[in-house]
Amino acid sequence: KKESKLYMAFLYVAFASLLIGGLMGLLQTLVRAGKFTLPFGINYYQILTVHGVILALVLTTFFIVGFQFSLMGKTTGISDKQLKVGWVSFWVMLIGTLITATMILLGEASVLYTFYAPLRAHPLFYIGLSLVIIGSWIAAFVNFRQLYVWKKAHKGQKSPLLAFMVNINMIMWVIASLGVAISVVFQFIPWSLGYGATINVLLSRTLFWYFGHPLVYFWLLPAYMAWYVIVPKVIGGKIFSDGLARLSFILFLMFSIPVGFHHQLTEPGINPTWKFIQVVLTFMVVVPTLMTAFSIFATFEITGRRKGYKSLFGWFKKLPWKDVRFLAPFIGMVAFIPGGIGGIINASHQLNALVHNTIWVTGHFHLTIATTVILTFFGITYWLVPVLTNRKLTPKINRLGIIQSFIWAVGMLIMSASMHIEGLLGAPRRSAFSNYGGADQVSVWINYQIAQAVGGTILFIGILLMVYIFIKLAFFAPRGEEEYPIAEEEEDAMPTPKVLENWKLWIGITIALILFAYTIPMIDIIQHSPPGSVPFDFPIGR
Ligand code: HAS
């Protein structure tokens, strides 16, 4: 079908990014272990920027937009006009990605994926990133339109659950990315073009984290879409409660954005009262995650018991462990237990003082985004690609997928565990190999660095295997029909309250919370801004 081509186009970019970004990750672990020197004058921060931008921003956004387009197409339909605009979003995002990637590869933008001022990149780096965001906004407006058209044609009916979820995620994305867009357009681009000698660093970082935290939920929510609606179907069950799923997404919309200060707890210039308020709001965002865990386990248990497994954990043993469409997301769910606990530690002000800017934080996000989310995305790939290309997930590919999931789990366990421990021993994140003037502590860190290189190598093997599986599913697997797994709701679930679809109410509360959490600190940051910082061009003397 013609729409499949659009969805697949997004996935091609995502998997090409996985290969490039993964290779950079491997190189980083080798450099940090002191086992490898980058050739051709390539700088450590150049590959670290490629790794972060290509994996955290490009892979995720392309996969999510493509996957969400397919969910909308399946549940609400997509018109020819919407499809055309969908292609516009793809090309705008791709052109933006190519511009940004070129600047990084030329060594003109080694500013890492957070592009903190006063690090300054070439203007085209920021312009490219802006295009990626603009492209994603175009996609968002197509999704909004798809739901609107569906609602008009189905007056009085509740929207399809997946369409509702996609729209929540895109509303959150648009509101959040406004922050980084303002910073890029009004601060970074003029500054990198030479207008204005200094930049308000705190303002730029605050606008970045206003966007940066919801960004992580923009990654997480598509995984939750699969956990709530797809995984139940794969295991032969039903959705525990449509209303509960919608409520948890609404809570994410409300509490994901006004919490960016938990990334800035160590920064001066922000009144501690506002930090405290945003930390409280951060803990609120744990609630929908716990609701999700409860609801998914309820689905697992109900399904197992319905199949007749009676003992306390009999239902658990009988889950379809040999089906990679279930196994890969399940490993992701398990990884979220330590990943989430790490998040709560990070968000606690006093504990943050211990872990901030250490490699502990890197360990945290390799569990959350690189395991929970990415393994769920792999789990989606095993059925989505065959559906889109009219091919079969054969038992052989399924077996390879199971091997891939275990390789990923083992590699990540070794790498992320050693990052967490090394972080508690004080090792900084974002630093190349150094003996820090021969400090004793370094001799303790090095063993954990070597463990990370081992984990990173295993993970790279996992990436090669996953890319092979993707190519196989997209081009070489036998022709056939594969199911698009969308579960129905349990018959005895409570009817979904109508108020959950009151968009004006939820968006209104979201905006009110943002204004509450940010207005006064923003005025402070602008009013009491220091003279600003002069640029730091990398490499020095560019
Ligand atoms: Fe985070 C830093 C706080 C979740 C990603 N985070 C980062 C960075 C990234 C990131 C990329 O407060 C680095 C940014 C940078 O470059 O500087 N994070 C949290 C909190 C949560 C959280 C409170 N993070 C995520 C998710 C991410 C992600 C999700 C990506 C997808 N994070 C922080 C903080 C920092 C931070 C600070 C800044 C640190 C610093 O100082 O720089 C929460 O959302 C976590 C809630 C989750 C739980 C877990 C519940 C468990 C569940 C398990 C379900 C399991 C099932 C199966 C169903 C409370 C849901 C069980 C099976 C069995 C067999 C048992």
TrEMBL record:
Membrane topology: Multi-pass membrane protein
Gene3D superfamilies assigned: Cytochrome c oxidase-like, subunit I domain
Keyword annotations: Electron transport, Heme, Iron, Membrane, Metal-binding, Respiratory chain, Transmembrane, Transmembrane helix, Transport
Secreted is among the record's keywords: no
GO molecular function: cytochrome-c oxidase activity; heme binding
Transmembrane residue ranges: 6-27, 47-73, 85-105, 125-144, 164-189, 209-231, 243-261, 281-303, 324-345, 365-385, 406-425, 445-471, 505-526
Keyword Cytoplasm carried by entry: no
Cytochrome oxidase subunit I profile domain: residues covered: 1-475
One BP annotation, GO: aerobic respiration
Principal place of residence: membrane
InterPro entries: Ba3-like_Oxidase_I, Cyt_c_oxase-like_su1_dom, Cyt_c_oxase-like_su1_sf, Cyt_C_Oxase_1, Cyt_c_Oxase_su1_BS
Domain of life from the UniProt record: Bacteria
Annotated compartments: Membrane
GO CC field: membrane
Family listed: Belongs to the heme-copper respiratory oxidase family.
Protein name: Cytochrome C
